[in-house]
Amino acid sequence: MKLAVKREALAQGMSIVIRAVPSRTAIPILSHVLMATDEGDLRLTATDMELTLTVWVPVEQLDEEGATAVEARTFHQIISKPIGEQLELTYQPETHVLYIHGPNTDIKMQCLPADDFPPVVAPEAIDGSLTLPASVWREIIKQVRFAASTDEARPVLTGISVRTQGHTVTFAATDSYRLSVRRVTLETPLPAWDIIIPARAFGELQRLAKDGENEIRMSVSTQRQQAIFRTERAELITQLIEGRYPEYERIIPERFNTRVVASRDLLLRYADIAQVIASLESNIIRLSIQPSEDGPGAIVITGRGEANESKAVISAVVEGEPLEVAFNARYFIEALSAVPTPDVVMEFVAPASPVVIKPTGRDDFLHILMPMQLSA
Q: Is this structure's pTM higher than 0.85?
């Protein structure tokens, strides 16, 4: 293998795939990145056997095809240094040595044979594909991923449920204290999907769905138990999580006794201040919902510590009964941050019942948050 490549493009590609390299592994080849020429590009692939990331880097000049497996972190550190705008990479298969040549630099790295790297084979049997703008994927991930659990004792809750029904695909995540649901309506129907994708995979997808990308295609292979995400120059393959996702629809309230519409930014601003005080003790903030017969209602946001207290009053449209409710401050702030509209709707049944948080004028997203127990 012999080629020339822009150092910055190579470093950017490595910064993506290296996230699939395990920090510790008993299998030496998994600490390496597969580097191979592929139809005029340089293909970089890394895997931990659960998640596989591939990036195609443009090649400036290709003199000889080839492939090798290079130690990921050392190679990434080297090419991240300003050792030249363009680098020449030459691999000698007889000695398994990679030579990196820059304007004033010559580096050689011992590699492993490309054949030692686990084969990455695209599934032949695909059960449908979904293509959405990268901007829509970014919004879906922002609205859903944060609600997934990090507790490995319940593996299904560490994933994101993806279900299709006709023209609708629904993404949902819950850690049993909160639930985020995002629906997308499609022009054409999809096959029936009922799968669980690791939340970690959606985190990596968020990095791929950068502003420069136009569309991302998601494909599913139930035969291989994999989901595949493809951008113009990158691919993510993830194993699906086995198991049955909870029937979360049952906890979504069908009625409410109090409904509030308020500024999302004001709620975020003063909830954040209240969190500073509350985090010193319980991290619980209180909301007092106060309707008014002769004008707009109000929300009083309070944070209390052992010797400190914050209180803010914001105007709101309040329908129904007055209410006192308490929330985990971080959960409440994360829920508000997922709402994409200037105003937010909150619907309450009772102080200890699940609360619906959703945008105004849109019915494609909602968040359910369990309140905390009120104390004196």
A: yes
